[in-house]
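Appendix C. Worked example: ATPase
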Amino acid sequence: MTQLGRPGDATSDEIRAAIRAGDTTLGIELGSTNIKACLVGPGHTPIASGSHAWENELSDGLWTYSLDDVHAGLQGAYAALVADVEARHGVRPTTFGALGVSAMMHGYLAFDAAGKLLVPFRTWRNTNTGPAAAELSELFGYNIPLRWSIAHLYQAILDDEPHVPQVASFTTLAGYVHRALTGRHVLGVGDASGMFPIDPATKDYDARMLEQFRHLAAAKRPGLRVEGLLPEVLVAGADAGRLTPEGAALLDPTGELQPGVLLCPPEGDAGTGMVATHAVAPRTGNISAGTSIFAMVVLEEPLTSVHHELDLVTTPAGDLVAMVHCNNGASELDAWAGVFGEFAAALGHPSDADAVFGALFAAALDGAPDGGGLLAYNYLAGEPITGLDAGRPLVVRTPDSTLSLANLMRTQIYGAFGTLALGMRVLAGEGVAIDTMFAHGGMFRTAGVAQRLLAAAVGAPVAVGQTAGEGGAWGIAVLAAYSRAVETAGQDGAAGASLDAYLSERVFADAALDVAEPDAADVAGFQAFLERYSAGLAVQRAAVDAL
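Step 2, the predicted output written as structure tokens:
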């Protein structure tokens, strides 16, 4: 494992001065189980954070979050951030140089002309859009996944849902929060690319496909023009509006936060993950591991074929990206860690979550390279890549396998990467070259374990930076800083640097990275595991049918 570089640190006085002057940027990301706020100070260094836990709920067969929970979660995360700033630095922020919002991509938030939500928020996790996604994919000659916003809208049209005639706009979760803060119906191009296909040449919605959709929808909804419902597309660095008095009150009901703060374009968690890992240039990619797990690889040229395993989205700057998105990530691994934590407490040795994960992940390194013959599926939900519309978490083994803590934990980590590896095989078949994959998310807080096994799973070096645990909240804060830098350059009459140049020269120039190369024994072991994993999908399907 190689360490590259080390970032410098601002002094305590410099940090306090920056907070008082509003010379900081704030990033807020609404993830699947946690809303996180990250404050970035001099040198793009995280100087405080706050979080608020939340959970989706199943309502009328669809996964959703209520808007009341969105508002309460934003306020909770912001209040926790302010408290952390005061505890660490002895001052309370009242303004910022810029702020940004990101959230889970995709899904469907539909509003009428008065701004009223027409149906509960339908998240990326829902898989009820199969007929719409299949018909649109065939029409466009372009893969439209089940979770994309246009699939949700067209499925509502196919189902003749009564709310459809009233739809005046629809957006993603990040787009909704951004509009609540600024009043502007806009979206960063990366998040927009998960609503409707983007033309990389124009960095806007694909005009041909918009016309095709108009003709398709006309049979059921004459006159529906989807381009009038979608958010305006903005690339990274654009001025996406200012914090209104109403927006400031939404974030901070105490009244301390002042309006007027610049906002960057709202982005999806995929885009902020790319920024957080410096993976916005061709031949680079990143992997984000959370409730879901996905890989993003920036393409040098378009793919030659359409693959249902691969989405085509964009970076926040609008460059084409192949995305392998798996509905299921680290949740089952978290559940097993919870069981072992309870066991430790029952023995009279209660331990915090980090200590439990550290012990379990360390054990995984001692497991057999192929997991000792064990097989694990992390399918809490359906998994479109493997053709499953529901999931059943499983641990399966043959009588001659070796059940041990080390093998169980290695297999659980392998299982979190299994579906992702199947998608990456498709990408490799397209001849896509990858120099380095950058990883972020809570799985990588335990140094060297998930990173090493991921390198074996994807067959490429995997780099983890010091901000890997900060994830997308830090990434959107960096995008906010970029918008501020572009605005300042414009005021000075200078052209702003590209996003890639900004990240290379001003954010990651001295960043510390740990790079894990694929280990030959691990690679061979994971391939043996993946063959069992592929064959065992029949067991997973049988479990869905039987249970």
